[in-house]
Amino acid sequence: MDASVKGLAKQSAKHEKFRELAEGRTNKALDAIGRIGNLSNRSLYEWEDSEVRKIVKALKDAVSEVEARFASPKGKAGARFRL
């Protein structure tokens, strides 16, 4: 196998690994967001509008950070969320 074929095989393996991890992690994130949405049930929970705004802002900020990291992959993960 020549070097260019090996390079393509390695690149393909890296892309496949990315797709596998991206799908799993994205689905986990979507499930977690869905569980946060379940907190909107007023018959089970009570909250203040300011708390909801903080949650939504934290989620939007996290998505913006992901976008920025793909634009410039040298970025680092941010801090944990707290109300």
State the gist of this model.
With 83 residues, the protein is mainly α. It contains 2 helices and no strands.
Layout of helices and strands, plus pairs?
Elements: H1 3-38, H2 49-71
Number of helices: 2
Tally the beta strands.
0
User: On the 0-100 scale, what is the average pLDDT?
Assistant: 89
Alpha-carbon distance between the two ends: 56 Å
The radius of gyration computed from the alpha-carbon positions, rounded to a whole number of angstroms, is 19 Å
Largest sheet: none
The assigned structural class equals: mainly alpha
Structure, explained:
This protein has 83 residues and is mainly alpha-helical. It has two domains: 1-46; 47-83. The protein contains two helices and no strands.
Relevant terms:
83 residues, mainly alpha, 71% helix
